[in-house]
Amino acid sequence: MSSDVTLEPALYYEVTARDNNPDCRNYNQVFDIPQFYSNDGIRYAVVCGVCGQQMEILTATLLDPQPEVS
Questions:
Q1: Are 46 and 55 in contact, with CB atoms under 8 Å apart?
Q2: CA pair distance 35, 63, nearest whole angstrom
């Protein structure tokens, strides 16, 4: 699923994502993900827990401060 959202590498964001799979019971529902890691800033995804399809990331807000990782 393509997205116009650009993420910087190795940072945490709060994102919203929408399920665009018409065969899924979550179709067109928007989900809030309060702590989403951007990986390398190129390969990242939110996947529906019901249908397993990649969801469209609608918004991404950089968390400030960034979570402490141990």
A1: yes
A2: 8
Residue in the block written with tokens 């995804």:
45
Long-range contacts of range 26-30, CB-CB < 8 Å, 24 or more positions apart?
26/50, 26/51, 30/58
CA proximity to 60, closest of 7, 15, 19? 15
pLDDT in tens, 14-65: 999 999 999 999 999 999 999 999 999 999 999 999 999 999 999 999 999 9
Q: What's the pTM?
A: 0.88
Taken as a whole, the chain contains a residue count of 70
Strand, coil or helix: 56: strand
In the chain, what's the furthest Cα-to-Cα distance?
40
In this structure, which amino acid lies at residue 69? V
